Amino acid sequence: MGEIDGDLLLFHIDSSVLACDGAIRDLHLPEGASIALIVRGPKLLAARGHTILREDDQVYVFSQHEERALVTLIFGQPKEV
């Protein structure tokens, strides 16, 4: 597999971020970004438009390099993966 133009970022959702308590479809993610996986407690959740992101969720987001700044405005600072 060759090098990809993007990053897989991990975000911890806390009450201070824009994404907290919002449905994925209402987040208006940039074209070059998508939520790959949500971890809520011991459960793995598929990212669907109607899914509400909750405080303490761990969210994995794929983002093209040029979209990273906008993604961090929505989710906060990424954690080390």
UniProtKB/TrEMBL annotation:
GO molecular function, one term: monoatomic cation transmembrane transporter activity
Gene Ontology BP annotations: potassium ion transport
Pfam families noted in UniProt: TrkA_C (PF02080)
Positions of the RCK C-terminal domain: 1-77
InterPro entries: RCK_C (IPR006037), RCK_C_sf (IPR036721)
SUPFAM superfamilies: TrkA C-terminal domain-like
Protein name (record): K(+)/H(+) antiporter NhaP2
